Amino acid sequence: MSEQPQQFEQPQQQLQQGIGQEGTKPTINFRDKIVIHQQELEMKFESALLKTKPYVLYRWIFFFVLFFLFLVKMIAYGRYYTIAYIAGLYIVNSLILFLSPKLDPEIYGNDVLPTLGDSDYKPFVRKLPEFLFWQRITGAALLAHFCSFFKVFDPPVYGKILLLYFIVVFVISFNQRIMHMIRNNYVPFTLGKNKAKKNNE
């Protein structure tokens, strides 16, 4: 009979130990702390960035100042042509997406887009919205400034050749986009008056 209490005491002790282990806070290693802090910083950055969304004019002034300063720096030093070429291609690609409809009229029909003869309100839904477009090209301008401080990103090249390549890419890209607009008879802007908004006013 004396052995039975000992048999019952062992499971109870194990159960209490298990409860104690579950009740303790899980340990967070150094790597997890870095990930958590990184996520917190990203959330704060995105929150701060979203606060600038209503200030369209000031946002674009900021971009053009950045872009102009980089051009002045490039012309003054006669360097950074490769950085300017890559950033320029990225900006052109973003601009093409900004001017492109989210729904291709050649697939979904012309009714989804505002045409030149429309009097009704038809919003132009872009493949790349204005705020994201500004984010991308502003990031490209900031990155161009950052890369200009490192010689590894500034290999010796003939600037006029890169400029010629850029002009060719620009002309071909926009020619394709303009032909797409003409072929489907649409403009990359919102046409007509928003009657619902006017009635609310």
From TrEMBL:
Region Disordered, residue ranges: 1-25
Subcellular location as annotated: Membrane
Transmembrane as UniProt keyword: yes
Biased composition (Low complexity): 1-23
InterPro entries: Rer1
Topological type in the membrane: Multi-pass membrane protein
Residue ranges crossing the lipid bilayer per the database entry: 56-76, 82-99, 157-174
Keywords associated with the record: Membrane, Transmembrane, Transmembrane helix
Domain of life: Eukaryota
Keyword set includes Iron: no
GO cellular component, one term: Golgi membrane
GO aspect biological process, one term: retrograde vesicle-mediated transport, Golgi to endoplasmic reticulum
A Pfam family: Rer1
Predominant location: membrane
Similarity annotation: Belongs to the RER1 family.
The protein's role, per its UniProt record: Involved in the retrieval of endoplasmic reticulum membrane proteins from the early Golgi compartment.
Protein name: Protein RER1
Organism annotation: Tritrichomonas foetus
